[in-house]
Amino acid sequence: MAMSGAAKLMPSVPQAEPAATAVSIQNLSVRFGDRNNEFTALSDVSVDIPEGAFVTMLGPSGCGKSTLLRCVADLVHISDGSISVFGRSPQEARESRDFAFVFQDATLLPWRNVLDNVRLPLEVGKHAQNGNNADPHELLAMVGLKGRENALPHELSGGMRQRVAIARALITRPRILLMDEPFGALDEITRDRLNEELLRVWQETGTTILFVTHSIPEAAFLGQNVLMLQAHPGRVKEFMKVDLPFPRSLAVRDTVEFIGVTAHLRRLLEECL
Ligand SMILES: Nc1ncnc2c1ncn2[C@@H]1O[C@H](COP(=O)(O)OP(=O)(O)OP(=O)(O)O)[C@@H](O)[C@H]1O
Ligand SMILES: [Mg+2]
User: Fold this and answer.
1) What predicted TM-score, i.e. pTM, was given to this entire model?
2) pLDDT tens for each residue of 41-52
3) In this structure, what are the phi and psi dihedrals at residue 42, rounded to the nearest 5 degrees?
4) Which of 33, 50, 108, 144 could form a disulfide bond with 37, CB atoms 3.0-4.6 angstroms apart?
Protein backbone atom coordinates (compact mmCIF):
# COMPACT_ATOMS: atom_id res chain seq x y z
CA MET A 1 0.00 0.00 0.00
CA ALA A 2 1.30 3.48 -0.88
CA MET A 3 2.25 5.68 2.06
CA SER A 4 0.39 8.91 2.53
CA GLY A 5 2.38 12.17 2.45
CA ALA A 6 1.93 12.55 6.19
CA ALA A 7 3.16 9.01 6.89
CA LYS A 8 6.32 9.61 4.85
CA LEU A 9 7.12 12.62 7.00
CA MET A 10 6.89 10.63 10.22
CA PRO A 11 10.25 10.44 12.04
CA SER A 12 11.91 7.03 12.05
CA VAL A 13 12.38 7.11 15.83
CA PRO A 14 9.50 5.42 17.61
CA GLN A 15 8.59 8.34 19.85
CA ALA A 16 9.27 12.07 19.57
CA GLU A 17 10.93 13.82 22.52
CA PRO A 18 8.30 15.45 24.70
CA ALA A 19 8.37 19.23 24.27
CA ALA A 20 10.04 21.25 27.04
CA THR A 21 7.79 23.42 29.17
CA ALA A 22 7.89 27.04 28.03
CA VAL A 23 5.75 28.51 30.80
CA SER A 24 4.85 26.72 34.01
CA ILE A 25 2.30 28.46 36.20
CA GLN A 26 1.72 26.87 39.61
CA ASN A 27 -0.96 27.91 42.12
CA LEU A 28 -0.69 31.52 41.00
CA SER A 29 -2.65 34.16 42.91
CA VAL A 30 -2.61 37.89 42.34
CA ARG A 31 -4.15 40.36 44.76
CA PHE A 32 -4.39 44.09 44.19
CA GLY A 33 -4.97 46.85 46.73
CA ASP A 34 -4.10 46.88 50.43
CA ARG A 35 -5.23 44.88 53.43
CA ASN A 36 -8.35 47.04 53.93
CA ASN A 37 -9.35 46.99 50.32
CA GLU A 38 -7.99 43.83 48.78
CA PHE A 39 -9.11 42.46 45.44
CA THR A 40 -8.23 38.97 44.21
CA ALA A 41 -7.67 39.16 40.45
CA LEU A 42 -6.32 35.60 40.05
CA SER A 43 -6.69 32.66 42.40
CA ASP A 44 -4.83 29.35 42.34
CA VAL A 45 -4.14 29.27 38.59
CA SER A 46 -2.04 26.30 37.43
CA VAL A 47 -1.20 25.49 33.83
CA ASP A 48 1.81 24.21 31.88
CA ILE A 49 2.43 25.50 28.37
CA PRO A 50 4.79 23.39 26.24
CA GLU A 51 7.48 24.96 24.08
CA GLY A 52 6.16 25.81 20.63
CA ALA A 53 2.51 25.67 21.70
CA PHE A 54 -0.19 28.07 20.57
CA VAL A 55 -2.53 28.68 23.50
CA THR A 56 -5.49 31.03 23.29
CA MET A 57 -7.17 32.52 26.36
CA LEU A 58 -10.88 33.25 26.68
CA GLY A 59 -13.01 34.46 29.54
CA PRO A 60 -15.42 37.20 30.58
CA SER A 61 -14.20 40.77 30.87
CA GLY A 62 -12.27 41.32 34.09
CA CYS A 63 -11.49 37.62 34.71
CA GLY A 64 -7.74 38.30 34.67
CA LYS A 65 -6.54 37.39 31.16
CA SER A 66 -4.36 40.48 30.76
CA THR A 67 -3.15 40.15 34.34
CA LEU A 68 -2.03 36.58 33.66
CA LEU A 69 -0.07 37.65 30.56
CA ARG A 70 1.45 40.51 32.53
CA CYS A 71 2.54 38.14 35.29
CA VAL A 72 4.36 35.97 32.74
CA ALA A 73 6.04 39.13 31.40
CA ASP A 74 7.07 40.22 34.93
CA LEU A 75 4.90 43.33 34.73
CA VAL A 76 2.66 42.39 37.67
CA HIS A 77 3.73 41.28 41.14
CA ILE A 78 2.71 37.71 42.02
CA SER A 79 1.08 37.36 45.47
CA ASP A 80 1.30 33.56 45.78
CA GLY A 81 2.46 30.61 43.71
CA SER A 82 5.09 30.67 41.01
CA ILE A 83 5.77 31.13 37.32
CA SER A 84 8.76 29.75 35.50
CA VAL A 85 9.66 30.68 31.95
CA PHE A 86 11.97 28.09 30.43
CA GLY A 87 12.97 27.15 33.96
CA ARG A 88 13.77 30.70 35.01
CA SER A 89 11.90 33.43 36.88
CA PRO A 90 9.84 35.91 34.82
CA GLN A 91 12.35 38.59 35.81
CA GLU A 92 15.28 36.60 34.41
CA ALA A 93 13.26 35.81 31.30
CA ARG A 94 12.43 39.50 30.86
CA GLU A 95 16.07 40.49 31.29
CA SER A 96 17.15 38.04 28.61
CA ARG A 97 14.21 39.14 26.42
CA ASP A 98 12.64 35.70 26.15
CA PHE A 99 9.29 37.25 25.27
CA ALA A 100 7.74 40.04 23.28
CA PHE A 101 4.30 41.65 23.72
CA VAL A 102 1.75 42.61 21.06
CA PHE A 103 -1.20 44.72 22.27
CA GLN A 104 -4.52 45.68 20.73
CA ASP A 105 -3.01 49.00 19.67
CA ALA A 106 0.09 48.65 17.49
CA THR A 107 1.82 51.62 19.23
CA LEU A 108 4.17 52.43 16.35
CA LEU A 109 6.31 55.55 16.44
CA PRO A 110 4.52 57.87 13.98
CA TRP A 111 7.67 59.63 12.73
CA ARG A 112 9.50 56.41 11.84
CA ASN A 113 8.83 54.41 8.72
CA VAL A 114 7.80 50.74 8.75
CA LEU A 115 11.35 49.39 8.53
CA ASP A 116 12.63 51.63 11.33
CA ASN A 117 9.70 50.71 13.56
CA VAL A 118 10.50 47.02 13.09
CA ARG A 119 14.17 47.68 13.87
CA LEU A 120 13.37 49.69 17.00
CA PRO A 121 13.97 46.89 19.58
CA LEU A 122 17.48 46.44 18.14
CA GLU A 123 18.43 49.94 19.21
CA VAL A 124 17.94 49.33 22.91
CA GLY A 125 19.59 46.98 25.38
CA LYS A 126 21.70 44.01 24.60
CA HIS A 127 20.01 43.29 21.28
CA ALA A 128 21.80 46.20 19.62
CA GLN A 129 24.88 44.11 18.85
CA ASN A 130 23.30 40.68 18.89
CA GLY A 131 23.94 38.68 15.71
CA ASN A 132 21.01 36.40 16.49
CA ASN A 133 18.34 38.93 15.51
CA ALA A 134 15.99 38.32 12.60
CA ASP A 135 16.26 40.15 9.30
CA PRO A 136 13.65 42.96 9.26
CA HIS A 137 13.17 42.64 5.49
CA GLU A 138 12.43 38.93 5.80
CA LEU A 139 9.99 39.57 8.63
CA LEU A 140 8.17 42.24 6.64
CA ALA A 141 7.90 39.83 3.72
CA MET A 142 6.58 37.16 6.09
CA VAL A 143 3.78 39.43 7.34
CA GLY A 144 2.90 40.53 3.79
CA LEU A 145 4.43 44.01 3.87
CA LYS A 146 7.24 43.66 1.35
CA GLY A 147 7.47 46.92 -0.58
CA ARG A 148 5.99 49.03 2.27
CA GLU A 149 9.28 49.47 4.17
CA ASN A 150 9.33 53.23 3.66
CA ALA A 151 5.68 53.91 4.50
CA LEU A 152 4.84 55.90 7.62
CA PRO A 153 2.32 54.46 10.12
CA HIS A 154 -0.41 56.96 9.17
CA GLU A 155 -0.22 55.69 5.58
CA LEU A 156 -1.15 52.15 6.67
CA SER A 157 -4.45 50.48 7.49
CA GLY A 158 -5.08 49.19 11.01
CA GLY A 159 -4.37 45.62 9.89
CA MET A 160 -1.08 46.67 8.30
CA ARG A 161 -0.04 48.47 11.47
CA GLN A 162 -0.72 45.33 13.49
CA ARG A 163 1.42 43.33 11.06
CA VAL A 164 4.25 45.82 11.61
CA ALA A 165 3.79 45.33 15.37
CA ILE A 166 4.04 41.55 14.91
CA ALA A 167 7.19 41.88 12.79
CA ARG A 168 8.67 44.23 15.42
CA ALA A 169 7.86 41.72 18.16
CA LEU A 170 9.63 38.94 16.23
CA ILE A 171 12.81 40.90 15.43
CA THR A 172 14.69 39.68 18.51
CA ARG A 173 13.53 36.09 17.88
CA PRO A 174 11.63 35.88 21.18
CA ARG A 175 10.90 32.39 22.43
CA ILE A 176 7.45 33.49 23.59
CA LEU A 177 4.99 35.88 22.01
CA LEU A 178 2.40 37.34 24.40
CA MET A 179 -0.55 38.77 22.47
CA ASP A 180 -3.37 40.68 24.20
CA GLU A 181 -6.36 41.02 21.85
CA PRO A 182 -4.04 42.01 18.99
CA PHE A 183 -6.79 41.90 16.35
CA GLY A 184 -9.67 43.10 18.56
CA ALA A 185 -10.01 46.46 16.84
CA LEU A 186 -9.97 45.14 13.26
CA ASP A 187 -12.82 44.36 10.88
CA GLU A 188 -13.74 40.70 10.48
CA ILE A 189 -12.18 40.12 7.05
CA THR A 190 -8.85 41.66 8.04
CA ARG A 191 -8.90 39.73 11.28
CA ASP A 192 -9.53 36.46 9.41
CA ARG A 193 -6.61 37.14 7.10
CA LEU A 194 -4.30 37.99 9.98
CA ASN A 195 -5.41 34.85 11.83
CA GLU A 196 -4.23 32.75 8.89
CA GLU A 197 -1.01 34.73 8.63
CA LEU A 198 -0.30 34.39 12.32
CA LEU A 199 -0.67 30.61 12.12
CA ARG A 200 1.80 30.58 9.24
CA VAL A 201 4.25 32.78 11.16
CA TRP A 202 3.89 30.52 14.19
CA GLN A 203 4.63 27.42 12.15
CA GLU A 204 7.61 29.07 10.45
CA THR A 205 9.17 30.42 13.63
CA GLY A 206 8.24 27.79 16.23
CA THR A 207 7.55 30.58 18.73
CA THR A 208 5.37 29.73 21.73
CA ILE A 209 2.29 31.95 21.60
CA LEU A 210 -0.11 32.99 24.37
CA PHE A 211 -2.99 34.84 22.75
CA VAL A 212 -5.89 36.60 24.54
CA THR A 213 -9.14 37.12 22.66
CA HIS A 214 -12.84 37.76 23.20
CA SER A 215 -13.75 35.88 20.03
CA ILE A 216 -14.73 32.22 20.38
CA PRO A 217 -14.06 31.41 16.67
CA GLU A 218 -10.67 33.11 16.86
CA ALA A 219 -9.73 31.17 20.00
CA ALA A 220 -10.79 27.89 18.41
CA PHE A 221 -9.19 28.57 15.04
CA LEU A 222 -5.78 29.60 16.38
CA GLY A 223 -5.33 27.54 19.51
CA GLN A 224 -3.95 24.08 20.00
CA ASN A 225 -5.43 24.62 23.45
CA VAL A 226 -7.89 27.13 24.84
CA LEU A 227 -7.39 28.29 28.41
CA MET A 228 -10.82 29.36 29.65
CA LEU A 229 -10.80 31.58 32.74
CA GLN A 230 -13.75 32.45 34.93
CA ALA A 231 -14.12 35.55 37.07
CA HIS A 232 -14.62 36.50 40.76
CA PRO A 233 -11.94 35.47 41.43
CA GLY A 234 -10.14 34.79 38.15
CA ARG A 235 -9.39 31.07 37.92
CA VAL A 236 -9.10 28.26 35.39
CA LYS A 237 -12.42 26.96 34.13
CA GLU A 238 -10.91 24.54 31.62
CA PHE A 239 -7.72 23.96 29.65
CA MET A 240 -9.18 22.45 26.54
CA LYS A 241 -7.39 20.75 23.65
CA VAL A 242 -8.67 21.79 20.22
CA ASP A 243 -8.70 18.63 18.17
CA LEU A 244 -8.36 20.12 14.70
CA PRO A 245 -5.36 19.27 12.52
CA PHE A 246 -2.69 21.75 11.36
CA PRO A 247 -2.08 23.45 9.02
CA ARG A 248 -5.49 25.09 9.40
CA SER A 249 -7.12 27.29 6.79
CA LEU A 250 -10.24 29.38 7.33
CA ALA A 251 -12.30 26.66 5.62
CA VAL A 252 -11.92 24.55 8.77
CA ARG A 253 -14.49 26.85 10.38
CA ASP A 254 -17.21 25.30 8.20
CA THR A 255 -16.55 21.79 9.48
CA VAL A 256 -18.74 19.94 11.96
CA GLU A 257 -15.71 19.46 14.22
CA PHE A 258 -15.03 23.20 14.41
CA ILE A 259 -18.66 24.01 15.10
CA GLY A 260 -18.59 21.40 17.89
CA VAL A 261 -15.54 23.07 19.46
CA THR A 262 -17.08 26.55 19.34
CA ALA A 263 -20.40 25.27 20.74
CA HIS A 264 -18.53 23.73 23.68
CA LEU A 265 -16.58 26.95 24.27
CA ARG A 266 -19.78 29.00 24.14
CA ARG A 267 -21.40 26.77 26.78
CA LEU A 268 -18.32 27.07 28.99
CA LEU A 269 -18.25 30.84 28.60
CA GLU A 270 -21.92 31.09 29.53
CA GLU A 271 -21.19 29.10 32.69
CA CYS A 272 -18.47 31.66 33.52
CA LEU A 273 -20.79 34.68 33.38
N1 LIG B 1 -3.02 47.37 38.53
C2 LIG B 1 -4.23 47.02 38.97
N3 LIG B 1 -4.71 47.48 40.14
C4 LIG B 1 -5.91 47.13 40.62
N5 LIG B 1 -6.75 46.27 39.99
C6 LIG B 1 -6.34 45.79 38.80
C7 LIG B 1 -5.07 46.12 38.23
N8 LIG B 1 -4.95 45.46 37.05
C9 LIG B 1 -6.08 44.77 36.90
N10 LIG B 1 -6.91 44.94 37.94
C11 LIG B 1 -8.23 44.32 38.13
O12 LIG B 1 -8.05 42.91 37.98
C13 LIG B 1 -9.16 42.35 37.28
C14 LIG B 1 -8.66 41.62 36.06
O15 LIG B 1 -8.22 42.57 35.12
P16 LIG B 1 -7.68 42.16 33.67
O17 LIG B 1 -7.32 43.42 32.97
O18 LIG B 1 -6.63 41.15 33.84
O19 LIG B 1 -8.99 41.49 33.04
P20 LIG B 1 -9.21 40.93 31.58
O21 LIG B 1 -9.68 39.53 31.69
O22 LIG B 1 -8.01 41.19 30.76
O23 LIG B 1 -10.43 41.85 31.11
P24 LIG B 1 -10.79 42.36 29.60
O25 LIG B 1 -11.33 41.18 28.88
O26 LIG B 1 -11.83 43.40 29.85
O27 LIG B 1 -9.54 42.91 28.99
C28 LIG B 1 -10.11 43.51 36.98
O29 LIG B 1 -11.13 43.54 37.94
C30 LIG B 1 -9.23 44.72 37.07
O31 LIG B 1 -9.96 45.86 37.48
MG1 LIG C 1 -7.59 42.40 29.08
Assistant:
1) 0.91
2) 999 999 999 999
3) -135, 140
4) 33
